[in-house]
Amino acid sequence: MRPLMTLLTLSALIACGDDNDDDGTDTSETGSVDLCDGVDGNCYSFGPEDIDALFERINSLENGDTIIFDEGTYAFTNEITIAGADGITIRGQGKNETILDFSGMQNQGDGIYAKSNDFTVSDLQVVDAPKDGIKVEDSSGVTIQRVITTWTNEQDPTNGSYGIYPVKVTDVLLEDSEAYNSSDAGIYVGQCIRAIVRNNIAKGNVAGIEIENTQYADVYGNTAEGNTGGLVAFDLPGNPVIGRDVYIHDNIIKDNNLPNFAPGGTVAQIPAGTGTFAMASRRVEISDNTYENNGSTDIAVVAGLIIQSDPTAWALNTDDLIGDWEDLELTPLGEGVVGNFRSYDFWIHDNTHTNTGTNPDLSTDKLSFALAAIYGSTPIDQIIYDGLLETNNMLPTMDSGDTGMTGEPVSNDNNICVADGTIGNFDVGSWDIDSFPPVLPDLEDLPRGTAPYAPYDCEGIQSGPIPPIELQ
Amino acid sequence: MTHKAITILSTAILLSACAESWDPVNVDVSDDPPALLSEMNLLRWDGTTFEYNPEIVPYVMNTPLFSDYALKDRAIYVPPGTAAVYDDNDAFDMPVGTVLIKSFSFPADFRSPDEDIRMIETRLLIHYETGWKAYPYIWNEEATDAELKLGGGTTSVDFIDIDGEAVNVSYLVPQRNQCISCHELKDPESGDKYFTPIGIKARHLNRDLDYADGTFNQLEYLADRGALTGLPALSEVPRAYDFRALDLHEFNASAIDDLEGAELDKAARDYLDINCAHCHNPNGVNGISSQLFLNHDNESAFNLGVCKKPGSAGKGGAGRDFDIVPGDSYASILWYRMDTEDAGSMMPLLGRYLAHDEGVDLVARWIDAMEPNDCAAD
């Protein structure tokens, strides 16, 4: 049937102005096994030889259409772009059975790019996309299930940026999927409102799973293994979606010691050996995760000033903000202007930590270099906190200079609640991260302890729990 | 690398005076367009020149968009008895039935740009009652007609550049869904997305063109034909940088090196506007996340990229920290993403396989001429 495919689809197309196929019939022309059986609405199936017909079809989609890929390896030279219709479903025959190969694509583009409400993609694999593997942008009601995104070469900075990438999506379910070898984040949930990210695997990426500028995320049952950083959550400056209510629980986050191979971007600053890196974040609960063999540290809680030290770069007009922010204690930066660089309201509990911080990254990255230099041969603490923007965060032995700090113990205005694990306050506030090599405090001067350790002992603070998230 | 699109275009337009008879333009906005371009009676290609239906008006842009050095022929059809409505800043409000026609071709050798021309594609933007829709037509090998190909395609194009070097391009004819990459905007109030033309704006069209019947300002020519209403005195009409002043199509380093001050700023800003601002503007669906706004009327230095760290630039920076480092183009991500030919990093996202060396040089000179600032936090 393959050679007939193009002709048939073309003639259907030419007729489509006056002859709609809206009766829900199955218009598949695929051979013996009818892949469209049981599908409601219009359904079209394609095999690896039908790429021209496939592109004609996806560029004349109508609401509710289903596109089904047969098994096999598809050689694409252009992005699969889904737009102009809602309720589109793209489905393969399995994440190891339907392989969409973009290695022959010479032009810029993603593997699958979709801008479509109520969009579903499942049961297929995207290989060697020039840019991102699967990107869904500016849409609502997105489901991504049982997909793999990967690049053939490991640790290659020319690999694409993001594997699975819902961005500016409202209500996204991302589950049972796998992401390998991206030069930025394997799974990147960016600027989304309401996201469930569960039971996925991320390996060999710079950042395994990344939750960025996202509100209401439930992240559980995932395995982040063998990345530079395992599972990270942060806000970037200037973005109008202020991250909040991120619940990271019951994940396995281990062996994230891959040398950082990002060619640039924020993730280039993640030290190898980082389990979870939380930056410029608020209302974050990290619980019941299994941390194992992360060479630098398991959980790092830091202010955004570590990547952008100029607070004015974080200025946001409240008129521009998207989603829920009014109940957040954002830093005022003027009339109608707030900043989201502070990290606060963290509840960290019931995680297990094994063999943390024994293999810190000795590269010249500023943060990792500092950690390695401060701790020396002592294992780095399981949880480290920069103490930035505390009213009091001054080491008694240090000169307060013009910082206004009083030499009192850490005030914990940021409501960092740590129920178990060892904590090191590495006190970035008292040394200049932007100078290199930085002048570092001595390890014996660092406030360190084993939870419950004041002031992080959860006494009198409300940092959780994060309420359950229901997609709408 | 330079070429001579202007020459070709002028020749094409002059020759259209010798037109044989034409049937009326056949655009039915109650239906999708026909499978063959020829059925619409819009244009003919004789292997050397375009001939347009007399109901159609060709036009050129003050500052053109770069598309892998492809030669472009642009024209507009406004249905008889209707007119577009002038606007100072936005795309003109064009009547239903309007068709914008843009054809892409390559000569075998840019040193003889009017010989051995390979027609690649003709893109139509048709204004339906429900809004604008895009249709890519791909020419057959003999260039006798073009076929509607919603799925677009890629094709290998070989040419000799102006320096005599052999160049190969993996040329992408965008699939229809990719047209939104440049043509879709978001209403900042309602959040509704809408599809819009880019080039039909006062500032792009405000210049002269040699028509079959004489040389006229393009806006006045349209107005005189009754195809444009509300045109104020030309002295009040904005004008983008006219790249003929740079001899763009003989574009050479010395012309760029001679630019200074306000002229350099205008040339660079208008180049960035037409090449980048369809996404990088405050209403651009894809540009909002980056907060990098390259529209010509953006007045925020930060949003222009000055000492601005990128949002989710991914690998696009190749180790660079800021979009623009004043005085140091090489350290600027903006320059890098225009200069690189790495398929995962280059900008714009669509329509570029090669770097536009001359555009890159222009933007480099503009950044280098800024008051130096290493962007270090103080």
Describe what this molecule looks like in 3D:
The complex is a heterodimer of chains A (472) and B (378). With 472 residues, chain A is mostly beta strands. Helix content of chain A is 7%, strand content 34%. Chain A contains 3 helices and 35 strands. The longest helix of chain A is centred in the first third of the chain and has 14 residues. The two termini of chain A are 42 Å apart. The N terminus of chain A is likely disordered. Chain B has 2 domains: 232 residues, no CATH class; 117 residues, no CATH class. Helices cover 19% and strands 22% of the residues of chain B. In chain B, strands 3-4-6-7-8-9 form a 6-stranded antiparallel β-sheet. In chain B, a hairpin with a 4-residue loop joins strand 1 and strand 2. In chain B, helix 6 packs across helix 9.
Strand count, sense and barrel status of the largest sheet of chain A are: 20 strands, parallel
Helix-strand category of chain A: mainly beta
- Quantity of strands of chain A, as a count: 35
Beta-strand percent range of chain B: 15-25%
Q: For the terminal residues of chain B, how far apart are their CA atoms?
A: 42 Å
What best-fitting shape of chain B do the alpha-carbon axes yield? Answer: globular
Mean pLDDT rating of chain B: 89
Q: Biggest interface and its residues per chain?
A: A-B, 63 and 49 residues
Percent helix among the residues of chain A? under 10%
Number of domains of chain B: 2
Shape of chain A: globular
Mean pLDDT reading of chain A: 86
What is the oligomeric state here? heterodimer
Secondary structure: helix percent of chain B: 10-25%
Question: Roughly what fraction of the amino acids of chain A lie in strands?
Answer: 25-35%
Gyration radius of chain A, to the nearest Å? 24 Å
